[in-house]
Amino acid sequence: MRDARKPAVSGRHFARALWHLLRIYWTSPDAKKGGLLLALAIGLELGTVYGNVLLSDAFRRAGDALVAKTMPDFASATALVLGFTVVVLLASTFRIYFRQLLEIRWRRSVTAYYVERWIGPESYLQAEMHRGEMDNPDQRIAEDIRDFVASALGLSLSLLAAVVTLVSFGGILWQLSGHWPLAIGNVQLHIPGFMLWVAVLYALLAMWITHLVGRCLVPINFDKLRYEADFRYGLVRFRDNVEAVALSRGQTEEQRSTLGRFGNVVDNWRQLIRAQRNLMLFTTGAGQINALVPLLVAAPAYFAGLLSFGAVAQARMAYGQVSGSLTWFVNAYQEIARWRASIERLCTFGETMQATHGEFVRGEKIRIATGEDRRLRLVDLRLRLPDGRVVLDRVNAAVAPGDRVAVVGPSGVGKTTLIRAIAGIWPFGSGRIELPPGADLLIVPQRPYLPIGSLRAVLSYPAAAGTFADARIVKALRLLDLDHLAARLDSMEPWEQELSAHEQQRLSLVRVLLHEPGWLLLDEATSGLDEAMEQSVYDLLAEQLPQTAVISVAHRPAVARYHQRSWTLARKDGRVTFAAA
Question: Is the entire prediction scored with pTM above 0.85?
Answer without folding.
Answer: no
